[in-house]
């Protein structure tokens, strides 16, 4: 019953209330829509009082909208540091979310911490520093075949750990 009464209230008064709020806000359609939404929220909370027998419903809605606009104006005047965005500044650029890359880095670091230091050094040289086995061998001061062997066993250990983690 209350839902039907509210739906009817919105259907009957939304268009005229939006026009009124748009005039009150100096043509700012976005602010006017916010005012209308807040007005109807307050109407929902006072639905029992909004009947023609208790006075003009339209008058009540207009008074609430008027008060909301005045309160908003007063609030902005009280906070002199608040500035309205110019139309060219309304496009907000979303900043990339680095959470996933941080999580991956932490996971890789933890996994590398669980393998032999010699294997870890070979993996770091080949995969993280993007070196060939020959370059890694030179950097580590060990034969190239040893680098290949250590990388092989390190990857095998990491795969096993990953399988155990998934299970």
Largest sheet, in brief, is:
none
CATH architectural designation of the largest domain = Orthogonal Bundle
CATH superfamily of the largest domain: RNA polymerase sigma factor, region 2, helix turn helix motif
CATH class of the largest domain, named: Mainly Alpha
Q: How much is the radius of gyration in Å?
A: 33 Å
**What is the overall number of helices?**
7
> What is the CATH T-level topology of the largest domain?
Rna Polymerase Sigma Factor, Chain: A
Number of domain modules? 2
Topology, number of strands? 0
Portion of residues within helices: over 70%
Low-confidence stretches: none
Mean pLDDT: 86
Instruction: Give the CA-based shape.
Output: elongated
Explain what this protein looks like in three dimensions:
This protein is elongated. The model has no long low-confidence stretch (mean pLDDT 86). The protein contains seven helices and no strands. With 167 residues, it is mostly helical. The protein folds into two domains: 1-82, RNA polymerase sigma factor, region 2, helix turn helix motif (Rna Polymerase Sigma Factor, Chain: A), CATH 1.10.1740.10; 96-166, Orthogonal Bundle (Arc Repressor Mutant, subunit A). Helix 5 packs across helix 6 (133-140).
């Amino acid at each position: 019953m209350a839902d039907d009464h509210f739906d009817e209230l919105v259907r009957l008064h939304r268009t005229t209330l939006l026009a009124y709020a748009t005039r009150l806000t100096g043509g700012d359609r976005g602010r006017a829509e916010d005012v209308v939404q807040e007005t109807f929220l307050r109407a929902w909370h006072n639905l029992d009082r909004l009947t023609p027998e208790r006075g003009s419903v339209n008058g009540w809605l207009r008074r609430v909208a008027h008060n909301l606009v005045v309160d908003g104006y007063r609030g902005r005047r009280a906070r002199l540091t608040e500035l309205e965005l110019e139309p060219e500044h309304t496009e907000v650029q979303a900043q990339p979310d680095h959470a996933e890359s941080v999580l991956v880095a932490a996971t890789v670091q933890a996994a590398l911490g669980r393998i032999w230091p010699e294997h870890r050094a070979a993996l770091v040289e080949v995969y993280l520093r993007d070196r060939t086995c020959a370059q890694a061998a030179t950097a580590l001061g060990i034969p190239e075949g040893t680098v290949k062997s250590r990388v092989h066993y390190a990857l095998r250990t990491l795969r096993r750990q990953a399988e155990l983690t998934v299970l």
